[in-house]
Amino acid sequence: MKTAIFIDVQNIYYTTRDTFRRSFDYKRFWTHIESKDEIIKAIAYATDKGDERQQKFQYALRSIGFNVKLKPYISRADGSSKGDWDVGITIDILESAKQVEKIILLSGDGDFDLLVQKVIDKYGCIVDIYGVKELTANSLMDAASEFHSISNKFLV
């Protein structure tokens, strides 16, 4: 099945870290999807702090097969930070839905629930969500064709 993968890297990083104290295994995930679907497009959306550790991670994602899109990491005066990719992910998914049969979104962000429903209704795509169940919005899980809970299988 022609498939496009979209990863909200910040969401997956923090939800797996906070829940499991472990990291997501992107290579194992890629191998799993590739064994059953034809990956047409794969984009990982990340923030760029410019540090060496993060650059190595981005290189690793690229070597697996992901196109890595970066947005500057913004640190605010009040101590909060921002690196929001929601609109970019939405645009890319809507543009890709015409070319694939399945969309896979890795995120627990409930802001994507309307997008998921629109892609299913308008384009007839299967939309699978991968996320940490305890930290994934119920509305997103409900909107998905299928929800896959991230567990030990995809952790390092």
Automatic annotation (TrEMBL):
<protein>
    <recommendedName>
        <fullName>NYN domain-containing protein</fullName>
    </recommendedName>
</protein>
<feature type="domain" description="NYN">
    <location>
        <begin position="2"/>
        <end position="150"/>
    </location>
</feature>
<dbReference type="GO" id="GO:0004540">
    <property type="term" value="F:RNA nuclease activity"/>
</dbReference>
<dbReference type="Pfam" id="PF01936">
    <property type="entry name" value="NYN"/>
</dbReference>
<dbReference type="InterPro" id="IPR047140">
    <property type="entry name" value="LabA"/>
</dbReference>
<dbReference type="InterPro" id="IPR021139">
    <property type="entry name" value="NYN"/>
</dbReference>
